[in-house]
Give the backbone structure.
Amino acid sequence: MTTIDLSALDFWAQPPSERDTTFAALRAADGPVFCPRDDGPGFYAITRYDQIAEASRNPQAFSSEPIAASLDDPPPEVAGLLGSMLSTDDPRHARLRRIVARAFTPRMISRATEDVARLATEIVDALVQRGPCDFVAEVAMPMPLEIVCRMMGVPESARPEVVEATNALISSIGDPDHQDPSGKPRTAVLVDNVRFMHELMGELARDRRANPADDIVTAMVHGDVDGEALSDADLGKFFVLLVVAGNETTRNALSHALALFTEHPEQRDLLLSDLDERMPAAIEEVVRYATPVNWMRRTATGDVDLLGNRFRAGDRLIMYYVSANRDETVFVDPNRFTITRNPNPHLGFGSRGPHFCLGAHLARREIDLMLRELFTRVPDIHATAEPVRQRTSFVNGVLELPCAF
């Protein structure tokens, strides 16, 4: 088949239906297709569900190091700040995940859920008063970022700076052509905002070591459970991961949900006919259909086999979840949005393996409570225009989505 540059932003700017056609052709190819690049090393496109599942189960052969969320290796000035557990392998990954899992215990999730429910009510209260607006800015974005800040104990006075830094960070990561209003180079913007988040977490860590509290940061920086604790640097990396991955996944899933239920009114009617019964499956279908994170990278550690396909040491493999979630061998009528889909073993939170999303349960609760609040109080809320999409290949991001009710 004709080689397609899957790294080109023009490819990702196409209507989703055109991208789906391309990925269907890639899945039908004899094996993973090599994608050369003009501005960096090429990579193999891993597009089938079974290939991604197999690679995800085998980190010894398909490594997350040196980085999982970039086609290119990070520049030296950034590498030390961005190396979260997302881009590590065992045994370091297992150690970090054990410590970070303290943020997602049933008790911590229960406490966060209470915050989510209150925040969803506050956001919809403000929405009802405001009227037609940008759904992303007023509904989808405030929810996950505020929850992350509350979970991590970020003082209210610092939260506006976190919002500003997060937006700048996401823009500089996602769009290589992004121009910062200040005129700074993209890498400088990235470094400045990541350092701000590290410094903020460093201050919190020092305070919690001196003044322990019943919160997540205290649990992570004290080795009182099993002798393991996060360093200031690791805590900073975890915070960056939360504000980018946790924020983007939920924010974009909520935005896509509104767009999808506007485009498919019969599915909205079906959901509204029994919110309690339909909501869990509806959330899974939104995450499958939208696939908020398009891909992750792996690097072959040696000459290895992946379901009959050979790779050499150093080969870069890009696992396209956005393609696997349309795989005809797994999903019946995969291009159809249907909230009664069952089974629905989507890869919207990654594939089963050591890197499956630790915050998936919390993300589902955030989406559930916000959609429930919206469709209970303003059931006719709908998008009034097509979503303005983020210019990036990594996330299926929505920048703006006007709504009315």
Remarks:
- The chain has 16 helices and twelve strands.
- Residues 232-263 form the longest helix (32 residues).
- The mean pLDDT is 91.
